[in-house]
Amino acid sequence: AQSVSQHNHHVILSEAASLELGCNYSYGGTVNLFWYVQYPGQHLQLLLKYFSGDPLVKGIKGFEAEFIKSKFSFNLRKPSVQWSDTAEYFCAVTPTGGGNKLTFGTGTQLKVEL
Amino acid sequence: GAVVSQHPSRVICKSGTSVKIECRSLDFQATTMFWYRQFPKQSLMLMATSNEGSKATYEQGVEKDKFLINHASLTLSTLTVTSAHPEDSSFYICSAYDGQGRSSNQPQHFGDGTRLSIL
Fold first, then answer.
1. Of A20-29, A90-99, B23-32, B63-72, where does mean pLDDT reach its minimum?
2. Measured between beta carbons, which residues in chain A are less than 8 angstroms from residue B42?
3. Which residue, of A63, B43, B59, B71, has the greatest Cβ tally within 10 A?
4. What residues form DSSP beta bridges with A49?
5. Residues in a beta bridge with A103
């Protein structure tokens, strides 16, 4: 079975700071990778996803993530965060062809201060 | 974008009560819906996969008789927590996607979740 690790549980940044959230997965086969965001009081929303091709994927709101297969990583980045990026971020993985069953990491709570 | 409505958003009830949670896809046909459970400070844990018109597939360790899932139409799945006890208190989230004739790699759309508190 697959597993996902998010090492940063809480991150506090000032506006305009750069962001990188770590995500590592464990699985023996090929996977599809996702980052979801949950703003306060709202449902989970898809930020970006990787299925195949260019390992650097760009998502909404200026976020991007890079799939490094050799490191089993899919870190999320943003060059300059805004106060409105305050939210909880979840990394998730599903085996390719695995019926879309997501395995989530424990989430990272990001707080951006003015 | 695709919208999934989950109802109710919060339930507080006495031990022994059965509670039904609804998950509806509002603008697409959800051939598959998933039910997750989230404990405080923990990840979302998949409980079961619900396919329209067939029995749900439960993850290991999830009691089928405790968590009854019905997916009778392409837009509605329900989760019933039967004879709920305090240890069933949690945050339950559904998601849905349209996998009809397409790759299984369609994104899931999530409901807002239901906070269940059993006294």
1. A90-99
2. 106
3. B71
4. A34
5. A93
What is the rounded distance in angstroms from the CA atom of residue A58 to the CA atom of residue A55?
10
pLDDT in tens, A49-107: 999 899 999 999 999 999 999 999 999 999 999 999 999 999 999 988 766 789 999 99
User: Which residues share a beta bridge with B67?
Assistant: B81
Q: A19 — phi, psi (to 5°)?
A: -125, 135
Contact B75, B30 (CB under 8 A): yes
Residue B100 CA to residue A87 CA, distance in Å, equals 32
Task: Tell me phi and psi for residue B31, to 5 degrees.
Answer: -70, -25
Q: Chain A, 29-58: which have a CB under 8 Å from a chain B CB?
A: 32, 34, 36, 42-46, 49, 51
In degrees, rounded to 5, the angle at the alpha carbon of residue A3 between the alpha carbons of residues B65 and B56 is 25
Cα–Cα nearest to B47, from B74, B68, B16, B25: B68
Cβ contact, residue pair B108, A102, below 8 Å: yes
Chain A hits for B99, CB-CB cut-off 8 Å, are 100
In sequence order, what DSSP letters do the residues of A14-82 get, joined into one string? ETT--EEE--EEE-SS-EEEEEEEE-TTS--EEEEEE-SS-SEEE-GGG-EEEEEGGGTEEEEEESS--
In sequence order, which residues have a C-beta less than 8 Å from that of residue A48 and are 6 or more positions away?
A34, A35, A57, A58, A59, A60, A63, A64, A65
**CA-based nearest residue to B18, from B63, B67, B82:** B82
